[in-house]
């Protein structure tokens, strides 16, 4: 192997070591490995081979990811922008397209950087570039990343008050998740449930309470099934979905359904003060309605009073035992 080959092999190994260290959270050591890789490449004609340019892009991207993780946003912007530029130079040499997954990840990281810099328009542009790159890939292998990208797009669009477009992004992500076989993919299943929860809130913001309830009910069902299968992280999602159903059902005038969702939460968490306070406030609002409205919501006044009394007991701490 000639000197260039030795330097390239050394740099490639150092980049791999840096990635391992970064995944373990040792960003300082990872950055030092990338510095060593850069030093190893000094004097090597990187423009002579697309593989060399890809290695250079990996170094810039690694530095950008570390800068993003450690809060050095200007450095993250610089390094990730350089990574994207190098990937396009690589593509020109190969007279083809940049490696789509590599390019998509760089754009997503740059989008996240702009998001933290409070530059939502730039974040949206980079997110769109990432989705364009992912569009060239098979969703069966990269569906999770595409779903996460669409979720991020929805968040950015909501920040820009483009609520209808945000909902469309969430709907696209959910439709993709429903098409994919997510069996055995706990992280992807969790993301799909989270998308339903976010879509429920976005629908509710638009006044589509019925659709919001549908999303929340589906999320609750999925989360409960995952919790029963031993995925403990599904329990907070289930509770979140049920609390959303309390609010959405009350808004829809289905007071019995709101009460059912509330007591499903209490059954799991016990007399948690915030949940009890939320329930008491709901029943107090219901008592201000006339009897016809309560009957229409399938929760007569006497049942409202009984439930409020039950929650009042939960909210009142027991008297100290007499010695």
> Quick one: how many beta strands?
0
Number of helices: 15
Helix content: over 70%
* Distance between the ends: 87 Å
Sheet bearing the most strands, described?
Answer: none
Which structural class do you get from the secondary structure elements? mainly alpha
CATH architecture of one domain: Alpha Horseshoe
* Low-pLDDT residue spans: none
Query: What is the CATH topology descriptor of one domain?
Result: Serine Threonine Protein Phosphatase 5, Tetratricopeptide repeat
Q: How large a portion of the residues is in β-strands, by DSSP E?
A: under 5%
CATH superfamily of one domain, by name, is Tetratricopeptide repeat domain
Mind telling me the CATH class of one domain?
Mainly Alpha
Taking all residues together, what is the mean pLDDT?
A: 93
User: What shape does the CA trace take?
Assistant: elongated
Protein model, in words:
Among the domains are: 1-137, Serine Threonine Protein Phosphatase 5, Tetratricopeptide repeat, CATH 1.25.40.10; 253-315, no CATH class. It contains 15 helices and no strands. The chain has helices at residues 3-23, 27-40, 50-69, 73-94, 100-116, 120-134, 139-159, 163-179, 186-205, 209-228, 234-251, 255-269, 273-287, 291-296, 301-315. The longest helix has 22 residues, at 73-94. The model has no long low-confidence stretch (mean pLDDT 93).
């Amino acid at each position: 192997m000639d000197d260039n080959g030795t330097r390239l092999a050394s740099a490639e190994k150092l980049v791999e070591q840096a990635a391992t260290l970064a995944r373990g959270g040792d960003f300082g050591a990872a950055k030092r490995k990338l510095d060593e890789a850069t030093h190893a490449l000094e004097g090597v004609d990187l423009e002579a081979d697309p593989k060399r340019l890809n290695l250079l892009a990996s170094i810039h991207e690694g530095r950008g990811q570390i800068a993003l993780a450690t809060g050095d946003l200007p450095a993250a912007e610089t390094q990730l922008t350089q990574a994207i530029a190098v990937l396009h130079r690589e593509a020109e040499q190969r007279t083809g397209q940049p490696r789509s997954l590599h390019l998509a990840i760089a754009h997503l990281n740059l989008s996240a950087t702009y998001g933290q810099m409070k530059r939502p328009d730039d974040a949206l542009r980079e997110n769109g570039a990432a989705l364009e790159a992912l569009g060239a890939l098979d969703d069966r292998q990269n569906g999770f990343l595409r779903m996460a990208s669409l979720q991020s797009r929805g968040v950015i669009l909501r920040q820009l008050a483009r609520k209808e477009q945000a909902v469309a992004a969430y709907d696209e992500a959910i439709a993709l998740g429903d098409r994919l076989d997510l069996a055995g993919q706990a992280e992807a299943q969790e993301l799909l449930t989270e998308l339903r929860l976010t879509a429920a809130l976005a629908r509710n913001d638009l006044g589509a309470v019925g659709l919001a309830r549908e999303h929340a009910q589906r999320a609750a069902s999925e989360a409960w099934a995952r919790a029963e299968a031993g995925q403990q992280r599904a329990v907070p999602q289930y509770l979140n979905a049920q609390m959303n159903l309390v609010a959405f059902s009350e808004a829809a005038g289905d007071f019995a359904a709101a009460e059912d969702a509330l007591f499903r939460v209490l059954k799991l968490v016990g007399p948690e003060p915030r949940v009890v306070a939320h329930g008491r406030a709901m029943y107090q609002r219901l008592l201000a309605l006339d009897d016809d409205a309560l009957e229409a919501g399938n929760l007569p006044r006497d049942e409202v009073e009984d439930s409020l009394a039950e929650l009042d007991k939960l909210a009142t701490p027991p008297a100290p035992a007499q010695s």
